[in-house]
């Protein structure tokens, strides 16, 4: 993340690893290839695409609690309180990095929300203040917030969410003033305005498909062990949840932006990129914009080409194959989020909590957290940090390979169920090797 809001959050350099970079990359690629080989031999029929794995019923008290209307209302109230607090810091806080507004947006909202969704389910859908405000407006107007005035176009799919996600990572990584209070405040105001207008026009379906944070949170939630099946809370394999990601237009662009922007964030901290913009005759801002766009486009293209290159049974048109496989990239994205932003979340998240106790710089301690200080424990244990990050990347890719293999068994003809998966395997190997190299170069 640019602009000085956070401490460095790369992997710490290859010198911090207990093994060499070359051995780490080789081991990760070998793990992916071996996993693929085992899957080909031992996993002959689709296990998740048939929708016959509802999972095991959760504890009855937990099902009743989370299914109660009061619980849903409580989450809505919590979301509105957090939103009101954030608005107050944006409007009345100091125009400096001591304002917790920056940490709330860049750390808690962008990183913490996603990891919370992996653990708990679709958090943003449950607490989204724009959904709550839209529901309130609809109640006053006597309309149904689910319907809106128009039907959401099916062809639009997730494309608005992909554009919204790119707009956020552009603000964070390529805009000239990512830590200027007015700039971030304006971005958030535009986001809220677009979401409220979209909700009024298309109802809550707009948030399912166009809210960048809800789409991101909901995708991450597919890796949680929780799901509601026929109204019941169940515990089931995250891979079973992952297989239920809707195959809609724009899904490939969403995962491409998420993966490409994280990869670019690592790349932007590399010594190569620093030397490049220091020696360049054009503005660093222009270089950052071009590189961010290139990373996102290349990531999207690799995913699309790798999946479209596989044959299908004919029931699934080739042009639809990329979005049928795109769900398999979600574990890879989450793996890189953990690998790249772990120290950011722990250290800067703690720092933000301390600053949040004095939102207006008045010397207050309203939350009792003003004395909190980051421990920087990972900074003193770089080998542990590096090992966690390598494992996050490898596990993410292995889960992605399993999800892709299971989907391939549903869409590939029997004669191509091995060779037909090779293009996606090549893409995943490239993402594994390239991603680790970028993380270590940061």
TrEMBL record:
Alphabetized UniProt keyword annotations: Membrane, Transmembrane, Transmembrane helix
Transmembrane spans: 23-43, 73-92, 104-124, 156-178, 184-203, 285-305, 325-346, 383-402, 422-440
Biological-process GO terms, alphabetical: proteolysis
Matching PROSITE patterns: ASP_PROTEASE
UniProt-recorded Gene Ontology molecular function terms: aspartic-type endopeptidase activity
InterPro entries in UniProt: Aspartic_peptidase_AS (IPR001969)
Name of the protein described by the UniProt record: Fenitrothion hydrolase
């Amino acid at each position: 993340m640019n602009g000085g809001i956070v401490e460095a959050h790369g992997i710490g350099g290859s010198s911090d690893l207990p093994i060499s970079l070359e051995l780490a990359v080789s081991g990760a690629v070998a793990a992916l290839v071996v996993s693929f080989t085992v899957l080909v031999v031992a996993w002959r029929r689709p296990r998740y695409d048939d929708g016959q794995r509802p999972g095991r019923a959760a504890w009855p008290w937990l099902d009743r609690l989370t299914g109660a209307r009061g619980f849903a209302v409580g989450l809505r109230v919590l979301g509105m309180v957090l939103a009101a607090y954030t608005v107050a810091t944006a409007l009345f806080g100091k125009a400096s990095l001591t304002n917790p507004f920056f940490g709330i947006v860049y750390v808690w909202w962008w990183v913490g929300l996603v990891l919370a969704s992996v653990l708990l389910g679709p958090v943003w859908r449950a607490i989204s203040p724009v959904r709550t405000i839209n529901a309130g407006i609809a109640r006053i107007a006597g309309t149904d917030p689910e319907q809106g005035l128009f039907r959401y176009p099916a062809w639009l799919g997730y494309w608005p969410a992909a554009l919204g996600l790119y707009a956020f990572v552009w603000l964070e990584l390529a805009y000239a003033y990512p830590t200027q209070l007015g700039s971030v405040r304006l971005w958030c105001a535009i986001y809220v305005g677009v979401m409220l207008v979209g909700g009024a026009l298309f109802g809550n379906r707009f948030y399912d498909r166009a809210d960048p944070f809800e789409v991101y949170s909901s995708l991450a939630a597919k890796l949680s062990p929780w799901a509601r099946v026929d109204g019941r809370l169940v515990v089931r394999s995250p891979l079973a949840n992952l297989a239920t990601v809707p195959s809609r237009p724009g899904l490939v662009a969403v995962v491409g932006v998420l993966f490409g922007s994280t990869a670019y964030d690592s790349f932007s901290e590399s010594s190569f990129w620093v030397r490049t913009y220091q020696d360049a005759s054009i503005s660093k801002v222009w270089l950052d914009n071009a590189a961010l766009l290139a990373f996102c486009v290349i990531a999207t293209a690799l995913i699309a080409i790798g999946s479209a290159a596989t044959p299908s049974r004919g029931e699934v048109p080739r042009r639809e194959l990329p979005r049928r496989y795109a769900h398999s990239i979600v574990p890879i994205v989450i793996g890189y989020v953990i690998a790249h932003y772990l120290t950011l979340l722990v250290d800067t998240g703690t720092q933000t909590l301390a600053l949040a106790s004095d939102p207006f710089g008045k010397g207050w301690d309203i939350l009792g957290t003003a004395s909190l200080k980051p421990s920087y424990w990972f900074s003193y244990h770089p080998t542990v940090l590096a090992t966690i990050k390598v494992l996050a990347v490898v596990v993410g890719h292995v889960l992605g390979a399993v999800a892709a293999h299971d989907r391939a068994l549903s869409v590939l003809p029997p004669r191509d169920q091995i060779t037909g998966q090779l293009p996606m395997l090549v893409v995943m190997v490239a993402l594994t090797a390239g991603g680790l190299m970028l993380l270590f170069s940061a």
